[in-house]
Design a protein that fits this description.
The complex is a heterodimer of chains A (175) and B (549).
Chain A (H helix, E strand, L loop, with lengths): L10 H30 L15 H22 L20 H21 L1 H15 L5 H23 L13
Chain B lengths: L1 H13 L2 H19 L5 H8 L8 H26 L8 H49 L4 H18 L4 H16 L1 E2 L6 E2 L13 H19 L18 H23 L6 H14 L12 H24 L5 H12 L6 H6 L1 H32 L4 H20 L2 H19 L5 H23 L11 H27 L20 H10 L8 H16 L1
Antiparallel strand pairs in B: 1-2
Classes of the chains: A mainly alpha (175), B mainly alpha (549).
Chain lengths: 175, 549
Amino acid sequence: MSAPSTAPAAGLRARLQGRSELSVAALLAVIAIVIAVDTANIRHTAINAGVMGPQVVPTVIATGLGLCAIALAISVLRGGHAEAEDGEDIDLTQKAHWPTVFGLGGLIFVFALTMDFLGFVIGSALLFYGSALLLGSRRFIWALVIGILLAVGTFYGFALGLGIYLPAGLLTGIL
Amino acid sequence: MENLTLLIEGFSNALTPQNLLFALIGVLLGTAVGVLPGIGPAMTVALLLPLTYALDVTGSLIMFAGIYYGGMYGGSTTSILLNTPGESSSVVTALEGNKMAKAGRGAQALATAAIGSFVAGTLATGALVLVAPFIVAIAIGLGAPSYFALMVFAFVAVSAVLGSSRIRGLASLFIGLTIGLVGQDLTTGQPRLMFGQPLLSGGIDVVVIAVALFAVGEALWIAAHLRHGVPPTIPVGVPWMGKEDWKRSWKPWLRGTVIGFPFGAIPAGGAEIPTFLSYVTEKRLSKHPEQFGHGAIEGVAGPEAANNASAAGTLVPLLTLGLPTTATAAVMIAAFNQYNIHPGPLLFQTEPVLVWTLIASLFIGNTLLLALNLPLAPLWAKLLRIPRPYLYAGILFFATLGAYAAGMQTFNIGILLVLGALGYMARRFGFPVLPIIVGAILGPEMERQLRRALQISAGDPAALLSEPVAVVAYTVIVLFLVVPPVIKAVRRRFGRGGPTGGLQAGGDSDGYSEDTESTVEFDAFGTQTSDGSARVIRVVRPQTERRGK
């Protein structure tokens, strides 16, 4: 996170701190390369003649991203660092808690995979329950009850109020 | 006078019992969701979008107007009662508002915010009514080169001018443009960045992008750094103001409106600069400058008015030119696109009833907001104590729902996750989210205009400079980009003396300041250091540059 602003950090330490942002520069460069490769594979068809072809804008974007990657890398190496975003419930003094983040991401992923089979109600109730527990709720029954109420309420709200039918999945015929 | 007739027609459309009900629901939900900590106006609008899917266009726009103003008001309630606000436009409100609440004057702070928002919102919407037809009259004659230039201008404004770091802003913009690239090219039908996935051929749904960046990214980011326990909130009664408070508030409301509206209306909007300018102005003009930093009511009244006036001003470029310059406006474009409505000068000609109904419903939403929120404020304050695990689990719940409902595709939830991770990275590494969403939305449109301009000229790039508006736009862009670094270089050469020297403290080449210097900058304005300090600094930087010119 933000570098301690007391004494200028020792060379190695400064480099270590900057390193995570260098990975962002690398990511930008990778995206630029992906765009460039993708653009190179666009077939030149007859329609491309006359009007501006579909390659022009992607080429500009890839170039721009590449330049940003280089500029960011230089800026980071020269000691620039970003400010992480603050907020009401954010405590930047503690380190990122990765199990929570990946747990939540995993839950969403599993939800996406199982949604059609389980249906919206079961899937999203479990998503809510799992997320609440990962985020530190210790009221195991309450959280589940809230999740189920939220899911069932949304399902019927969408069906009756908006006329949108979310997939019922396993509960088809019951709901 | 023609506008007036149209506006009255708009009112008669909006004032049916059914539409009033939609407006009421919009205001209530918008405020309730906007009050929740961690949810800014843009996220409020994005999360509540699915609700409008089943309504007809008019009904959904009316509900939308309610959600829009409700979400904005909710944010200021949060910042007054909780401090450290989530969205940058409420930072300044928190400075004095939270101090007032701590000193037992929360009711007055909420009242001046609510009434000031109403006054500013109404006046600024009135200004919108007056200004919009003129801009439409000019815009209708603009060709593709001008539109292209204006979009480039909006890109530069949101990425290189508003933020704190140009490199990060531009990188965000290009990432957004990349997202906008996905799908079949509109003109030639060639697949771009589709990686053989047919579900991507229509591009990524803008609603999914917005929900991912604002809701999922934010929820994941907060989850990583979740503060243990709920921060103390200040209980509050029904907002009211005494005679003295009214006397001290009405001028700041009007001044805030005057400062806020133009900043919103130029396509380089954002509420950060006007709210801060208003704060500084009120501090200078106040008869009680010593109260600033300890809960001066002027410091809430002015910035809140400026915030709302600039929000209404944002609608000028949005409706007349189709240019979104704030995150909320970007999400609103997404909502319009759902109905195949494309904001721009043509909209005023093809769908005048629709446009004027929307504007009329802005007035209605604003009035409902005042009528509802004064009595309901204690209830909203209770919402701040919602247990955080449920709050953020709920955000994920509704985010996945919104993404799924956007196309009834589980594939969308996968995209939601990927772009949510992007939103997380943006927050972690200080990349502004606004240029991403603006780039993703305007990118395809920009390409279309560029094509059109070049097609007319048979590929001669000189055509891009063939219209006066385009030339002006490029000139301003060059000034934006060139002048600040030159001033910086000159200052560096001649030393940093003088009282403003400390303000120009810049860390590295792209304008990032070190933490220690931030505090110096902040104190230079005599305000107290708080958690929000870093954000206020971002406001300071462009302002000093402007002064430098």
